[in-house]
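## Example record

The block below lists the input lines for one assembly entry, exactly as stored, with component labels intact.
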Amino acid sequence: MNAAAFLLLFLHQICSTVEQVVFKKAADRLQDHDLKNLRDILSFAGKTLLIPLVWLGFILVIGAWVFWFGLLTYVDLNIAILIDSLQYVMIFLVSFFVLKERIHWTRLLGAALIMLGVFLALKG
Amino acid sequence: MKNNLTFKIIGLMLLSDITESAGELLFKKAVLLTGIDHVAASNFITFLLKLAATPHLWLGILIYALNFVLWMAVLSRLDLSIAFPISNAAYVIVPFLSMITLHEHVPLIRWLGAALILAGVTLISRSPGKETATP
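Predicted structure tokens for the full assembly:
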């Protein structure tokens, strides 16, 4: 893993983290729907596509994939999958330091285990 | 009826794990087929064009779309707190399948790392807290 690979991983994780938030915000704008038949589903899909945030979400999905493919030119898939778990640590840090959420100690332990696991995965 | 683990739901979850892993393997295969090692800003566009010319990329995207539908079907029958840790099986399944199909080398210490990551991710996604985890 060199600096370029870490940069690609970081950009991938930024895109996919923001993508989750954007889709969640977009979903909050949709009311509850009864999806009973194909017509309901198509109408729901149509309404979804009218939300600009959904399109921002799509762009972020493509961005996340493009950076992920770039990362795969540097490392084996088995390493890429394992280091991608650092995204949980990133969300954890953002929740704690930016959103000032209270963190349960088991979550702190989880983040520590992930970091130790990634360290071992990269050492191997 | 929600959170009732039937054979149908277990089957859906297995299919969801399988499609997720298959999608990842196809993406890696597509990247290998471009013949580009260590992509940089200067050849990124060439890399993406070569990638788009592989059938593996498009098959991978198709399988990912199928995975999305399966995941939604699982979520409509199970709460995220139960369904999510099961989706983490990818941390073990993907390295295992990379070894078999892509002939990647996975040393013992990396398996130990994978076990710690799996434990950590499960702890984080199951811990009490007001925010919920997303896939």
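Residues 3-28 of chain A form the longest helix (26 residues). The interface with chain B takes residues 4, 20, 24, 66, 68-70, 72-74, 76-82, 85, 88, 92, 95, 101-104, 106-107, 109-124 of chain A (CB under 8 Å).
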